[in-house]
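Q: How would the structure tokens look for this protein?
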Amino acid sequence: MSKRTPIYLTLAGLLVLTAVLLSSCQATATETAAPVVIPTCPAPEPCPVVEAPPPGPTVPYEEMWAASPHNDAASEAFVHWDETEDKAVPASCATCHSSTGYVDFLGADGSEAGKVDAAAPIGTTVDCVACHNPATAALTDVTFPSGLVVSDAGDSARCLICHQGRASKTTVDEQIEKFAATDLDAVVAPMKEGDAEVRFGFINIHYYAAAATLYGTEVKGGYEYDGKAYDAKFDHIEGYATCAECHNSHTLEVKLDQCAFCHEDVAAVEDLKNIRMVSSAADYDGDGDSAEGLAGEISGMQEALYQGLLAYAKEVVGTGIIYDSATYPYFLTDADGDGAIDKNAEGGNVAYTTWTPRLLKAAYNYQVSLKDPGNYAHGNKYVIQLLFDSLEDLNSQLSTPIDMAAMHREDAGHFAGNSEAFRHWDGEGEVPGSCARCHSATGLPQFVKEGVNIANEPSNGFSCYTCHDHENWPGLLSVASVPFPSGAKLAFAEGDPNNLCLECHQGRAFSGTIDRAVADLDVDTPSETLRFSNIHYFAAGATLFGSDAKGIYQYEGQEYAAQFAHAPNVNTCTSCHDPHALAPKTAACAGCHQTDDPATIRMTSTADYDGDGDVTEGLKGELEGMAEKLYAAIQAKAVETSVGTVYDAHAYPYFFVDADGDGEADKNAEGGSIGYNAWTPRLLKAAYNYQYYQKDPGAFAHNFKYVAQALYDSIVDLGGDVTGMTRP
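A: Here is the predicted structure in token form.
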């Protein structure tokens, strides 16, 4: 049991406690209590001002890009693969149809550059990273489907990757070779590859191949026919020759406001189709309208080629064809000829399958012309040439060819970018200084400014600034006088704009060139040291100035006509020729000569210069007769001296060996023509003069007397027959 406290002790404790409490109360009642100080709360500190966080980095031009075709997420270019089984953009398409694929192709993701390693995920467009990354910043060279490379393309290189198309002349030729389709007009049958059947089918350039059009023959995006020459890159003018210089690189829109600087009445993209410059003077589509824009010319030629395709398919192949730009594979069958696409059992369109190589080439070019809607600005002349050649090739097999009589393929010489005069140095990549003055767009202004030429880049013909002063547009470059090969400094008048023409139309040799070559040699002994001397082409200035320039070989002891003055106001280059089209102003001739055909002009002379008995023919005919007699004398003297010769105006070195006298050039072991190698001084002088006449087709008008005198003297020196002939 526990012990309990006795009750008396508990009571005692209570009494003591009560006494203490009472004593305490009495003390409190009698003493003053100290006040209790309650502390005051400090004034509240204001809350710190929290500044808004700085905005994140802005993406330059984002809004412009967001509304562009490159970001049109709903377009077929980006949604085409959304419903496929693997929901991915195939590697073969990913480069241009996804940002992921583009970056992969460039190797910007660390992969091997130049190929796409794997299919790309759907859902991307062409975003900022696609074009703005270290790989694109360093990109300068781009390989096209033909295997040809465009170098030093700068920022535009990133555009060329996708806007080059997916096929080329090479692609077409490879398919023809693969199927051994040697008969151009035979339908090519399918072939076996393993267990699969492969068809000879249509080849598509693909969409928006603007770079293929722009660079022309440099990348061979179109089907270029063998033996034909084509325009190279269309350079436009300085500052407007690349993708980004003409298009906003983010919106992709054409910089119309800048087009309007030179091209009047350009307020909308459609207005660009009406542009036509003086360098495009021909009526390309033959519709009689040479003032319409280049877009209209191309459209007219497209229509003509399409009619040719229809006619060829019906007549040669035997199966009608129809084109539908919105329906793959574009060329469809119309076997019954009702103008409607044939349908299969399921109601689908029947693809065209009865291709011949000739039809494929033309159809490919037709598609090339359609899949670059801006071709009229990018490479109009190249496209015109492709269309022209395709129709011409189809016509060769049609019983009733499409009428091409009024169509034109070529431009005036100064703007004929497809000609040998401008394409000769493409393989070298530069026009040497000795040729650049007259065979490049930049050579003449360089010569006028510096007095010399260094190498220049090949060009697509002349540009506006070849003759016009860039700083003082539209003024022309100023030339006081022009040094000729003879050393003579000649001019129409000091500073006359026509002096510019003389810079190139003077030839590259003169009478003294021959004299130096034959010095101290026996006149009738063949010499291994002698080579043919060529005046070069269109030396009209030398002809015009006659003995003042000494362009032709002038025989010692003979007098020769000086500058042909003609008549006031018609005695310079541009008073007789259109400065851009270059054609003679024949209407001006009629005022005095009662004819607009210069070839028939004779004036009052009754002399028979060529000795053919006709004293009424034009002076052109007289020179032709004299040249024929000179050629006969050259051939006779060649046989008499050593070995026969034949002349070919289109092949260097023009005179060739004809030892067997069959009228054709002898061939070497490699099958090449053998250049004439038995020159004597006498023969060389006459041959030089014959070539001089051949290379100035307007000699009869430029200075008839001067050239006729030299032809006559050449015949006499060779011992030829001049009976009945008259020396002016």
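The chain has a mean pLDDT of 93.

Residues 7-30 form the longest helix (24 residues).

Upvote if useful.
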